[in-house]
Write a structure and sequence with these properties.
This protein is an alpha+beta fold and 403 residues long. Helix content is 37%, strand content 17%.
Amino acid sequence: MHSPKNRFRDPRIEHGDGPGPRPGVTAASLAANGSPDSLRLTHIESLDDLETGAYWPRLQPYFLEPHYKRLTYRLAARRQPEIVSNEIVSSRGAARLGELDVAYVSDRHATVMSITETGLRDYCLTSVHSGGIEFRGGHAVRPIDASQSVGLIYRGLPGTRVAATDDHRRLAIWIRAHGLQQRLAALLGEPGREDIVFDPVIRWESDLGRSLARLISLMTEEIGSPHSFAANELASRSFTDVLLYALLNSLRHNYSDRLDRAANAPAPRSVHRAEEFMHAHAGMAIGMRELADTAGCSVRSLQLAFRQFRDTTPMAALRQIRLQAVRQVLESGEARGTVTDVAYRYGFTNPGRFSRMYKQTFGVYPGRCTASQYFTTAGLILGSRMRVLGDICAICPEFARSA
């Protein structure tokens, strides 16, 4: 199993000898023809531009926060290599999905990224697609080598160094620290007293790694899609929840032992409270932390309760409630707009997938509900992609029992 497939592919920078990204969607074609709101890509032909950070404004509207300027790049070699006229020495891509800032880094020559000044509070989930990197810093007591089979997660502490080989490409997902801390507090039922410290190594060939790789591949696929769910707040929030809870429940960190302890099963009333809230707010973005607060328990306890008393997960239950809400609207004859419009209001943003899921649940396609409405091809995505919750359950047996 190699690192998650990278959809930020640039055909003009093909130096790696590994499997690389999944073909078919390129960063260059997206920037030129696809969805400029989803992706910014810039090619760097000057080493001065690379080392001074002159390219940063070209990534707008992404990575605008001042702390990202503390990420600096320089050539690893002391002697400046010969640069052919019009040669692309580096490329940078940028996108955002919910709380996640996503960066694509491609360098022809070996470079060193350093985190300067006071550093970044955020965490970086890194997947290498060609070449390799050496990580130094944070809580690692010795250098760590990452490649196509080994990923990294680290915090942007000052003094961190990431040295990349020639002909190197990687995907870096920056995750806000407070977002992880909020999800951790929801799992524990109380705020953590210390910062989260992850074991930095992720082995993609492991069961845990494969599950995370599928989530990351889904994310990059969506960023590269003209119908990306990035524009849908409900879908983006749901995906962010899925990824961050997966990281906390699958990767080892200083709170893992507490999360591994058996939680006391809450009274069924917590399930009823959660279900009542989901019914009342089916058309709104609902996060696991918010749901657990309403139920009066931790996220972990709510997951256990739904597994024990409903044989499902909270998010799967919410999906069924939203399907029922769509059906009621369609059958009432008072629906405004097309079937797609109604489905989108409840977070189902891919028409084809929603249609199949509706058929599996109710035995008929949604277009059969009313003769005056037809399913259009417009839409983005959430709907059946809530199946990524299954990836969390696949991460490890312990979490599968609690999800």
